[in-house]
Amino acid sequence: MAKKKSQSLLSSYRKKSRRNTGKALLVLLVAVLIIAGLVILALWATGKLGGSGFSLFATKTPTPTMTLTPTPVTPTNTATTTPTITETPTPSMTPTLDGPFDYVVQEDDIYCADIAKEFKADLEVLLAINNFTNGTCYIKPGDIIKIPAPWQRMPTSTPVPTELRPGTLIEYSVESGANLDSVAKFFRSTIARIIAETNRYRTSKGITPLLTESSTLFIGELLIVPVNIATPEPTATPTRTITPSLTP
To answer: Hey, which residues does 225 pair with through a beta bridge?
Structure first.
């Protein structure tokens, strides 16, 4: 009886031992599977298994930033041209020894006397060469009038001395209607000598323009005339009042 009982206990122990071993193996297997699953899950989550992984663990791909490298530019000295302002010329003329010259009447010009004073001209000559009769002066803005040179003077009615020796130079201020031919005939001179002596005088004084045969004579214009150098023509008579004055 005792032998059967001990065999029964041994058999029961062995069965119990096998059951415990099986449970241990099962637990171990489950643990291994859990660990393996966790490892796989971790690898997948980090994207190391080729998956995208959880966004929680995803690393943002840095966006490439383009860095512009400045290209050195060699400065070039470029000349800067400053525009020059061109002023519109005023039609008023600057008085010189030349004359007479044209002048455009301005808005503030009222009296001929003021214009004559501005240009240092003789008022009577200004009135005469512009055909302003009776001493009147009719001007308005925009009119063009003649301005005599400062050296032009109105002639007087002094008669020509008869005792002057041939070649004597006299100063003659041109009267209205006079021309080179009439002056030469009246003074028994020549046009060529009048031109030569007048231009010699004008050159010495800086007066322009020089006199030519085609020049138009203006009232008060100064001529230098050598008298009594030509034979007078029988029909030559003075048509104008001549005002001579001796040249010193």
So the answer is: 170
Topology (CATH) of 101-147: Membrane-bound Lytic Murein Transglycosylase D; Chain A (3.10.350)
User: Higher pLDDT residue, 160 or 91?
Assistant: 160
Contact between 154 and 125 under an 8 Å Cβ cutoff? The reply is yes
CB 103 within 8 A of CB 92: yes
**What does the block give as tokens for 34?**
């859990």
This model's pTM is above 0.85: no
Q: How far is CA 137 from CA 16, 36, 127, in A?
A: 155, 127, 7
DSSP string covering 169-227:
EEEEEPPTT--HHHHHHHTT--HHHHHHHHHHHHHHHT--SPP-TTPPP-TT-EEEEE-
Helices (H), ranges, the chain: 2-45, 112-118, 123-129, 180-186, 191-205
* Residue type present at position 240: R
Residue 60 pLDDT greater than 70, yes or no: no
Q: How does 138-160 read in b/e, with b if 16+ C-beta sit within 10 Å?
A: ebeeeeebbbbbebbbbbeeeeb
> 169-246 maps to which CATH number?
3.10.350
Share of the chain above pLDDT 90, in %: 17
CA torsion angle 104 98 244 155 (round to 10): 10
